[in-house]
Design a protein that fits this description.
single chain; alpha/beta; 27 helices; 19 strands; globular; Enoyl-CoA_hydra/iso; 3-hydroxyacyl-CoA dehydrogenase; lipid degradation; 6-PGluconate_DH-like_C_sf; NAD
């Protein structure tokens, strides 16, 4: 028998058994509580030690001959699944098989138990956490459970402890495809009400008395006074649903995500296979994926988002941060209005917008108020909170309203002279300690602050559009930006719930520089005569979230061209000034029509004497990315390659299955071919050597 992998750093989630009296029952109930000994910030998870503890707890509970066995979690957390921090220690496929089989064996005891089993899902239940609940005969869910789901496909795995077989036979193929495929790939989870409506949970109770209500409900089920009915699963539509799901996956990912295809195969198997055969197939599929590059890359990206993003490198001590009691926003356009809403919601301080005339100011404030009303109408905000937020947001054409602001951010047109003029005016109004932040996407923060009396309090604060959705915040340190300013900027970023990365004041910073080098290579191919559709489909094998032309439409050709001009001026040897991109900007035509390339645009840029194949386009673009990232690291734009990967994942949607940019370039050999060395040590974002 193959030994289980050792998880040297496992924080063991203990399964604690206690017998409780439940009114109306002659026998006691056995309640198993999952608890790793920490608060909600370190959620329960299952490693080998945690599974062994649960196994022992089930034995203890069963021996007590209770009326029923129930499993629940510590405050706010049920269980968030397998302990993925131990995955790097799995070095042999047999170890992965052994771990899969252990989870199946332990969880199956709840399914096959002669004593009724219940899951009282009191908090977040993800992956293996939801799977252990699915093995129970009945499930309740708390209104306070923050997230429920099977997100494994998003990190290069599949639900490997029964989820792919149990869920479709509980709620049907459409719901299972949503939970196992669609939600992970769109970064969504189930809320308690959705879980109840889908049939994942049998009943939902308020958080305040969730355990008491669940125990009473379970007693009713055991006594027979409460009958649990579940709809019959329609197997006639099973194959059709999965066929459609496969079409959607192929269209979006082009076969680049093995975990999604494996999940589809397992869902198909669940229609007729026995539970034993289905879970055996799960174990084999899970082992294959654990030993593949996609899972290692995905786990690397997951670690970046969950850990590195919360501990940014190079940040001054937070004790230096100044308190922010009022925020000023220069500009009242769409970006500025989005910022106003974000600052008001997260900081809960007065926010005031200014612009050139009252009409623009009124429009900006109206946008914020409209978004607040929309949130209330969707039930995502109560009227009391909304009323408070409305009172915090105001507008004025008089910049003197910034006199008592602690933090002022400008979000105006990308023109250096204009921005310098704004700061020169504002410096006469605000206090010497007020932070002056710029949302510039490519201009020099140092130059912007050069003529000020206090350049040390100017900092770059680069958000990504849409502000409410994209979590990245590039915080740019100018040559004279001091530590209190930086500390305040990062403190504000945390309050805004953004993932902040410290960036050197270099042209276009991180995301825009990488994407512009990519776009530059794409249009080099177009300028050489490569048809637009060939260029656009060249990157399908990578499974990127958007093709290049759709991405260009999202960014805006004019914006992309402007950033390109900035980088062409700084690095004319690498960033070209594409005549065809200029044609597109001047024409003002939409790039896409009905999700297809606009034929008028294709005709506009047609021509050239040296067209490339799709493979050549892809190879040249990836080689250019490797070169540019190496130069950025040599220049000290960020501390490490991991920061570039984090920026690209959070700011550009670079997919988890690639692990970010640098692990892919390392695995494919492009890094060493172009730059002579890897970006990351062997085994980071890939299989060990």
């Amino acid at each position: 028998m193959t030994a289980l992998p050792e998880y040297p750093n496992e924080v063991v989630t203990k399964a604690i058994v206690r017998l409780v009296r439940v009114p109306g029952l002659a026998k006691q109930a056995a309640l198993i509580t999952l608890d790793n000994g920490f608060d909600y910030k370190k959620p329960n998870s299952f490693g080998p030690g945690g599974l062994a503890s649960l196994d022992e707890a089930i034995t203890t509970a069963t021996a007590a001959d209770p009326a029923f066995i129930a499993i629940t979690g510590k405050p706010y957390i049920f269980c968030v699944g397998a302990d993925i921090t131990g995955m790097p220690f799995i070095t042999e496929r047999a170890q992965a098989v052994a771990l899969g089989e252990l989870g199946h064996r332990v969880f199956a005891r709840l399914k096959s138990s002669a004593i009724p089993t219940f899951a009282f899902v009191n908090g977040a239940a993800l992956g293996g956490g939801l799977e252990v609940a699915l093995h129970c005969h009945y499930r309740t869910v708390s209104t306070g459970a923050a997230a429920l789901g099977l997100p494994e496909v998003a990190i290069g795995l599949i639900p490997g402890w029964g989820g792919s077989q149990l869920l479709p036979n509980l709620i049907g193929a459409p719901g299972a495809a949503q939970v196992i495929l669609q939600n992970p790939l769109t970064q969504k989870v189930l809320r308690p009400k959705q879980a109840r409506e889908l049939g994942v949970a049998d009943e939902i109770f308020e958080a305040a008395d969730f355990l008491e209500s669940s125990l009473a409900w379970a007693a009713g089920v055991v006594q027979g006074s409460i009958e649990v009915t579940r709809p019959e699963i329609d197997k006639d539509m099973w194959d059709g649903v999965l066929f459609f799901a496969k079409q959607q996956l192929d269209q979006r990912l082009h076969g680049a995500v093995p975990s999604a295809n494996k999940a589809l195969e397992l869902l198909a198997l669940a229609k007729e296979a026995s539970f034993e055969d289905g879970t055996a197939a799960e174990t084999e599929a899970l082992a294959d994926l654990i030993m593949g590059d996609e899972a290692r890359a995905s786990l690397y990206a997951f670690d970046l988002v969950q850990r590195r993003a919360k501990r940014p490198v190079g940040v001054p001590d937070k004790s230096l941060a100044r308190k922010v009691t009022k925020v000023g926003i220069i500009g009242a356009g769409l970006m500025a209005s989005q910022l106003a809403l974000l600052f008001a919601r997260r900081l809960q301080v007065p926010v005031v917008l200014t612009d050139l005339d009252q009409t623009r100011v009124d429009k900006g404030v109206a946008y914020v108020l409209g978004q607040i009303d929309k949130t209330v109408s969707k039930g995502r905000m109560d009227e009391g909170t909304a009323a408070k937020l409305r009172g915090l947001v105001s507008g004025s054409v008089d910049k003197s309203v910034f006199a008592d602001a602690d933090f002022v951010i400008e979000a105006v047109f990308e023109n250096l002279d204009l921005k310098k003029q704004i700061w020169a005016e504002l410096e006469k109004i605000v206090s010497p300690e007020a932070i002056l932040a710029t949302n510039t996407s490519s201009l020099s923060v140092t130059e912007m602050a050069a003529d000020l009396e206090h350049p040390e309090r100017v900092v770059g604060f680069h958000f990504f559009n849409p502000v409410a959705v994209l979590p990245l915040l590039e915080i740019i340190k100018g040559e004279k930006t001091d530590d209190p300013t930086l500390a305040t900027a990062f403190a504000v970023g945390r309050e805004l719930k953004k993932s902040s990365v410290l960036v050197k004041d270099a042209p276009a910073f991180v995301v825009n520089r990488v994407l512009t080098r990519f776009t530059s290579e794409v249009f080099n191919a177009v300028d050489a005569g490569t048809p637009l559709d060939v260029v656009d489909s060249a990157f399908d094998p990578l499974g990127l979230p958007m093709r290049p032309i759709a991405l260009l439409q999202l960014v805006g050709p004019a914006v992309a061209y402007h950033v390109g001009e900035t980088l062409h001026a700084a690095f004319p040897d690498r960033f070209t000034d594409s005549p065809n991109l200029k044609k597109i900007v001047d024409a003002g035509l939409p790039l896409m029509v009905d999700d297809e390339i606009n034929p008028e645009v294709a005709k506009l840029v047609a021509g050239g004497s040296a067209p490339l194949s799709a493979d050549e386009v892809r190879e040249k673009a990836l080689a250019a990315l490797a070169e540019e990232i190496r130069l950025m690291l040599d220049e000290g734009v960020v501390a490490e390659a991991q920061d570039i990967d984090l920026c690209m994942v959070l700011g550009a949607g670079w997919p988890f299955h690639l692990g970010g940019v640098t692990p892919y370039l390392d695995r494919s050999g492009i890094s060493e071919k172009v730059t002579g060395k890897r970006f990351l040590p062997q085994g980071v974002g890939s299989l060990p050597a």
